[in-house]
Amino acid sequence: MSDEKKPPGAPRIQLQIDDSLSHGVYANIVLINHSENEFVFDFAYLPPANPTARVRSRVISSPRHTKRLLAALQKNIERYEERFGVIEISGEDEPTVH
Fold first, then answer.
1. In Å, what is the CA distance from 93 to each residue of 23, 89, 90, 96?
2. Residue by residue, what is the 3-state secondary structure of 4-51?
3. Which of 30, 34, 44, 91 could crosslink 53 through cysteines, CB 3.0-4.6 Å?
4. DSSP helix/strand/coil, 85
5. Segment 4-8 mean pLDDT
6. Residue 26 contacts residue 37 (beta carbons within 8 Å)
7. Is the pLDDT of residue 98 over 70?
8. pTM of the predicted structure, to 2 decimals
9. Under a CB-based contact definition with an 8 Å cutoff, are residues 43 and 58 in contact?
10. pLDDT, tens digit, for every residue of 36-64?
11. CA distance linking residue 44 with residue 25, whole number of Å
12. Which among 28, 29, 36 has a CA at the least distance from the CA of 66?
């Protein structure tokens, strides 16, 4: 989202990240729930041959921001596929979104 064109006069945002967060976490499943006022994303890791997924991070977002996130993800997938090729999703893939 950082390379999208901003309207004139829009403030530039500088991000700061703590060292403890800078390496990120791996997740291969995301569970999404919502109410009228918010979306809750639970990013989890499900190890091979183990039926229990462990939540690694929870993100809570407003509906408007979630819709902007969806648009930004779509745009970035398109850019990725233009550069690296189509991302194939087969029926054999583990479910990643619930």
1. 26, 7, 6, 8
2. CCCCCCCCCCCCCCCHHHHCCCCCCEEEEEECCCCEEEEEEECCCCCC
3. 44
4. coil
5. 64
6. no
7. no
8. 0.75
9. yes
10. 999 999 999 999 999 999 999 999 999 99
11. 9
12. 36
